[in-house]
């Protein structure tokens, strides 16, 4: 996955505080949000673009376009943070041929019908099952809000 330096699942997608920390720590040149709903929501796209740090390009695109662009090595020579909204998005990208070997889970908010596994991670039964599928596929998953926080193995919280 030429150019992709980090894959993150965060239901807030692109937001100021964490975006700035990750951007600096990873020396990003681009932040890519790959999500089918966001890709067609002009209002949300304009809000997300405003959250991006100065000097860092943004791509707010569908999963299919993200997969096609990454596989075509469109981001070669760049340092890209790929942000997804859910584990289902990660599974879909893998099905489309992306070799996702590791990902970091930031925030998945407490919502109706979710179980809290970590202070910042609450999952529906379907999301839990999707993380288990990713684990079975050999994807290394960590739980870390900001780069300064200690890295934890997500599976320790899901057991």
TrEMBL record:
Its main location: cytoplasm. Coiled coil: none annotated. SUPFAM superfamilies: PTS IIb component. GO terms for biological process: phosphoenolpyruvate-dependent sugar phosphotransferase system. GO terms for molecular function: kinase activity; protein-N(PI)-phosphohistidine-sugar phosphotransferase activity. Keywords: Cytoplasm, Kinase, Phosphotransferase system, Sugar transport, Transferase, Transport. The keyword Iron does not apply. Residues 1-159 form the PTS EIIB type-4 domain. GO terms for cellular component: cytoplasm. InterPro entries: PTS_IIB_sorbose-sp, PTS_IIB_sorbose-sp_sf. It is found in: Cytoplasm. It comes from the Bacteria. This is PTS transporter subunit IIB. It comes from Copranaerobaculum intestinale. The lineage of its organism: Bacteria, Bacillati, Bacillota, Erysipelotrichia, Erysipelotrichales.
